[in-house]
Amino acid sequence: MSPFLPCWSCCCLLLFFSLGIQGIPQDPKAAPEQVHLSYPDEPGSMTVTWTTWVPTPSEVQFGLQLSGPLPLRAQGTASPFVDGGFLRRKLYIHRVTLRGLLPGVQYVYRCGSTQGWSRRFRFRALKKGPHWSPRLAVFGDLGADNPRALPRLRRDTQQGMYDAVLHVGDFAYNMDQDNARVGDEFMRLIEPVAASLPYMTCPGNHEERYNFSNYKARFSMPGNTEGLWYSWDVGPAHIISFSTEVYFYLHYGRHLVERQFHWLEKDLQKANKNRAARPWIITMGHRPMYCSNADLDDCTWHESKVRKGLFGKLFGLEDLFYKYGVDLQLWAHEHSYERLWPIYNYKVFNGSQETPYTNPRGPVHIITGSAGCEERLTRFTLFPRPWSAVRVKEYGYTRLHILNGTHVHIQQVSDDQDGKIVDDVWMVRPLLHRMMYL
Questions:
Q1: Which intervals hold domain Purple acid phosphatase N-terminal (predicted)?
Q2: Candidate from 20-24, 67-71, 180-184, 357-361 with smallest mean pLDDT
Q3: H helices of 206-280, where?
Q4: Rounded Cα distance, 59 and 46, in Å
C-alpha cells in the first residue's frame, strides 16, 4: 500500500466537507439576493421575495432566536422573469408567504435552498387590529445613482423606527436599464431596509418599459393586479395604492383606466363602511394632482389628467376621492417636498384659520419625491400657489405616524440638514366628523 493513501483520503474528506454540509457545491448563481418583504394583507403573515439566477427550490427557515437553528419552515414558488432588453436576461423570482406569525414579535429568517442560503435577516410581524400606532417611512423617486436618503433610512430601520415603507413610485432609474442590471443593483441597495420591513410600492413612470414588467416581476403586493392597484389595512388606517400611469400609457390598454376606477370606487365604499374600526383612508399614487414646481409635468396643468381624468371628464380621481372622504393623499414624481392646505377643486378648505388641519373639509396632499436619484432636485415656481402650505427643495423623506383613529403626525426629514425635521404637522379628525361618510 502506498504510504500516501491515508493522506490522500484525508484530503478528499476535507474537500467533500468544504463543498457544503450536504456535499452539494454551492453555485453562486443559486445564492439568494435582492431579498425583500411585503405584507399580503393577511394578519399574521409576511411575504419574502428574492432572486436567483438558476432555478432552485424556494424555502424560508425562520424562528425567534438570533443564533442557532431556525425551526420553522415555509415553502413557496419560483417564477422565471425574462427582461425585455436585447440580452433577454433571465432571473428567477422566488416568493414565500410566512403565516401564523405572532403580532409584534421579532423573527429571524433566511431564504434559499440547499443550493445556497441568504444571510440571516430580522423583521417584526405587524400587529393585528386597529388599536395600535403604525409608523411608516414614505418617499418616491429613489434611484440606484444618487440615493441620498438611503443611508439615513438604513440607520432609521436598524433603530426600529418604522413598521413599513411606502415607496410611491419610480425605482432605480430605471429597473430595465442595462438589460435590467440597474434593477438588480437597486434591489441589492435597498435590501438592508426592504429585508427588514414590508416594502409596499406603487408604479411610477420610470417603470413603464415593457409594460411595467420589471416592476410587476420584482415586487409582491396584495391582490391580483401584479401590484398596479391594491389596498391593505394597518392599524387604524386603510391604505390604497394605485397607478397614475394608466392615464398616460394608453397603448397598454385604455380599459385599465376604467377597471382601476371601478375597483377604487368599490374599495372606497367598503372602506367607508369600516370607518368605525379604521377611520383613516390614505391613498398613494405616483403623479400628483397638484404641485407648484417649475416644470411642465401633469400636476402643473389646471386640468391635470389624474385630477380630472381622460379628456378632462372621464375617470378623474379628485371627485371620487372627495366623495368618499379620503383623508390623506401621498404623491411623489416631483423631486421635492410639498404640503398643501386641505384642498378640493383649487379651493382651500382649512378646518379653521388657527388649526387648518383639525377637521379639514378637504383632503390633505403630501408630495414626497426627494429621496434622491440621478435627475437631482426639482425647482419650484418663484411664488407659491395659494393652496401650497410648505415647499422644501432638499433631499429627504417623510415620516408618517398614524397615532390613533383621530390623530396623524407628518414630518419631513431633510438629509441635506443632517436629519433635521423641516416640516411637522398634525392632522386631527374627531370620529364624530366622519359620520358624514357612513
A1: 32-124
A2: 20-24
A3: 209-218, 255-273
A4: 14
Q: How many residues does the chain have?
A: 438
All structural domains of the chain, each given as residue ranges with its CATH number in brackets, are 33-124 (2.60.40.380), 129-428 (3.60.21.10)
- Write phi, then psi, for 433 (nearest 5 degrees): -80, -5
Residue 120 — φ and ψ, nearest 5°?
-85, 140
Helices 209-218 + 177-194 axis angle, to 10: 30
DSSP state of 43: T
Looking at the whole model, is its pTM more than 0.85? yes
> Pairing mode, if any, of strands 328-331 and 280-284?
parallel
Smallest CA-to-CA distance from 277 within 324, 225, 236 is with 236
User: How many CB atoms sit inside 10 A of residue 90's CB?
Assistant: 13
- Check if the beta carbon of residue 93 is closer than 8 Å to that of residue 217: yes
Q: Is 316 helix (H, G, I), strand (E, B) or coil?
A: coil
Lowest mean pLDDT among 209-213, 310-314, 336-340, 428-432: 428-432
E strand residue ranges, 1-146: 33-38, 46-52, 59-63, 72-75, 77-82, 90-98, 106-113, 116-117, 121-124, 135-139, 142-143
What does the block give as the cell for 141?
423617486
Residue 159 is given by DSSP the state: T
Rounded distance between C-alpha atoms, residue 256 and residue 222, angstroms: 18
Q: How far is it, in rounded angstroms, from Cα 235 to Cα 127?
A: 8
Q: What are phi and psi of 214, to 5 degrees?
A: -65, -40
Distance CA 369, CA 169 (A): 9
**What pLDDT digit, counting tens, does each position of 335-387 carry?**
999 999 999 999 999 999 999 999 999 999 999 999 999 999 999 999 999 99
What is the rounded distance in angstroms from the CA atom of residue 330 to the CA atom of residue 332?
7
For residue 174, is the peptide bond before it cis, meaning its omega torsion is within 30 degrees of 0?
A: yes
Query: Under the phi-then-psi rule, with left for phi > 0, alpha for psi from -120 to 50, and beta for the rest, what region is 20?
Result: left
Provide the grid cell at 133.
400606532
**What 3-state DSSP class applies to 167?**
strand
What's the grid cell of residue 286? Answer: 405616483
Considering just the CA atoms, what is the radius of gyration of the chain in Å?
A: 23
Cell digits for 242? 394605485
Closest-CA residue to 241 (of 181, 284, 271): 284
Look up cell 392632522; give the residue.
427
Cα 335–Cα 341–Cα 345 angle in degrees, nearest 5: 95
- The closest of 357, 262, 386, 283 to 325, measured between CA atoms, is 283
